[in-house]
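User: My instructor asked us to take a sequence, write out its structure as tokens, and then describe one feature of it. I'm not sure where to start. Here is the sequence I was given:
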Amino acid sequence: MKALAICGSPRVGGNTETLLKLCLNTLEEEDVEGELVRLAEHKIVGCDACGKCFKNRDGKCVTADDDFAPIFSKMQEADVIVVGSPVYFGSAVPELMALLDRAGYVGRANGNPFSRKIGGPIVVARRAGQNFTYAQLLYWFMINDMVVPGSTYWNVAFGRAIGEVNGDEEGMATVKRFAENCAWLAKRIHT
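Assistant: Let's start with the prediction itself. The structure tokens for your sequence are:
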């Protein structure tokens, strides 16, 4: 089984990445191989609503010459998909939403490859906006017919400065339990 964690944060090594690494490490302890993709290291542009994914139905997006295709391919191959975003002005970062919007459209135009995959969002905030951002990302999982395991709380944590999220014990424990539940569910589905 494979897990893909997509870090939307433009800050490499920041709090969002810390949470996603905790998630991946927990999954790997449960024998689910993991990979982290940092959108900060890639160029992803937004959907321009050209509709060619529905017209061509070839599993490709022609919007731009960017890094969408290899990441989309990894998303299709993964059994578990987790996305993480810091809260920027009350919502998810635009780079992550650009990827998810395009992946959603191309996927829906081509047999919905995300249907019944496992996953969910992880959000980190300095102070507020985490509930809206969590819901914003959760909607993507729901509309793509995915299975989202719960945890002991919503998958949110607090921190601004790099490493500060490590001090949010409840947030870290919530993300760890979410990852354990993803692994538990994946094992039951794939046996």
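For the description part of your assignment, you could build on this observation: The longest strand covers residues 118-125. Try explaining in your own words what that tells you about the chain.
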